[in-house]
Amino acid sequence: MNTTNATNATVTHSTAEDAGPRVAASSADPHVAGPSADPHVAGPSVADPASLHTSVIAWFDRHARDLPWRRPEAGAWGVMVSEFMLQQTPVARVLPVYEQWLARWPRPADLAASPSGEAVRAWGRLGYPRRALRLHGAAQAITERHGGDVPRDHAQLLALPGIGEYTAAAVASFAYGQRHPVLDTNVRRVFARAATGIQYPPNATTAAERRLARALLPDDEAAAARWAAASMELGALVCTAKSEDCGRCPIADRCAWRLAGKPAHEGPARRGQTYAGTDRQVRGRLLAVLRDATEPVPRSALDTVWNEPVQRARALDGLVADGLVEPLDGDRYRLPLT
DNA sequence: CAAACGTGGCC
DNA sequence: TGGCCAAGTTT
């Protein structure tokens, strides 16, 4: 296991306006006052970032899951594939698909050489199948623009289809050991509780959260990468959304939320994502038929999955518009061969 | 910035 | 039973 020691976090200024992070100064930083600085400055405060790093990384060394994309042989491509699949999808459902995917397409160029429809088919029931299309598109771009190697540069990663702020940082950090704030839903929840003292982070990532993540990032590159994986794992295994297990938390003694008596979340709950009866459900049914078919499917067969004709047609049109389905002559459809 | 975008397991 | 949640991105 990694034995890198955590180092002091970068310390940033905060102002009354930005409500930014207020991280206690390390003795090496002359610019920032200590924990008892201006009481009017709002925002989270972490007394000792270095001890947080040490505790969370030590916990990670003992409890990290042995996931295939964390093994050295996974490589940057394996990391990237896993990140696409893990977007909004639980680890347990990703594991079998990931293994099949890497066995079939061990390098980006292998995937790029296959039809996009095969990527959609291999995606199976992971959900959000446009991710499969984007991963295929990213593999093509990597093959064409980067010589077949997953780029190391954050900006180049961000330019690939399906890669946003989180995934670019994750690949750069996990695959290449770079120093980036990796703000996923797990880390955001850990920070919200431990540093800000609230049960849940805001619905959308805020500038204040980015500042906090930046401020808490260890200076040392290897330590920062370790911290990213460790803080994420803590949120996934211990500091979970519903049934957090503070008894197993390495920083429970410093957690602002716990020390405040674990006050319940205020404000509106996250908008529930209704599913039954939506276009998404119809799209899912239509695509399931196409995935299981080896030959073009006549429209009449697709018509059986949903009884409401207007919504059914809208869903099918949407799939075609998204490039997930290819219309053929004779009112037939299939996964795209392009 | 809100809304769209799949699927299945859990309490 | 049904709402909530899961390593987000795109428009």
UniProtKB/TrEMBL annotation:
<keyword id="KW-0408">Iron</keyword>
<dbReference type="Pfam" id="PF10576">
    <property type="entry name" value="EndIII_4Fe-2S"/>
</dbReference>
<dbReference type="InterPro" id="IPR000445">
    <property type="entry name" value="HhH_motif"/>
</dbReference>
<dbReference type="InterPro" id="IPR003265">
    <property type="entry name" value="HhH-GPD_domain"/>
</dbReference>
<feature type="region of interest" description="Disordered">
    <location>
        <begin position="1"/>
        <end position="47"/>
    </location>
</feature>
<keyword id="KW-0326">Glycosidase</keyword>
<feature type="compositionally biased region" description="Low complexity">
    <location>
        <begin position="1"/>
        <end position="14"/>
    </location>
</feature>
<comment type="similarity">
    <text>Belongs to the Nth/MutY family.</text>
</comment>
<keyword id="KW-0227">DNA damage</keyword>
<feature type="domain" description="HhH-GPD">
    <location>
        <begin position="85"/>
        <end position="237"/>
    </location>
</feature>
<dbReference type="InterPro" id="IPR011257">
    <property type="entry name" value="DNA_glycosylase"/>
</dbReference>
<dbReference type="InterPro" id="IPR023170">
    <property type="entry name" value="HhH_base_excis_C"/>
</dbReference>
<dbReference type="InterPro" id="IPR003651">
    <property type="entry name" value="Endonuclease3_FeS-loop_motif"/>
</dbReference>
<dbReference type="InterPro" id="IPR044298">
    <property type="entry name" value="MIG/MutY"/>
</dbReference>
<keyword id="KW-0234">DNA repair</keyword>
<keyword id="KW-0479">Metal-binding</keyword>
<keyword id="KW-0411">Iron-sulfur</keyword>
<dbReference type="Pfam" id="PF00633">
    <property type="entry name" value="HHH"/>
</dbReference>
<keyword id="KW-0378">Hydrolase</keyword>
<protein>
    <recommendedName>
        <fullName>Adenine DNA glycosylase</fullName>
        <ecNumber>3.2.2.31</ecNumber>
    </recommendedName>
</protein>
<keyword id="KW-0004">4Fe-4S</keyword>
<dbReference type="InterPro" id="IPR004036">
    <property type="entry name" value="Endonuclease-III-like_CS2"/>
</dbReference>
<dbReference type="Pfam" id="PF00730">
    <property type="entry name" value="HhH-GPD"/>
</dbReference>
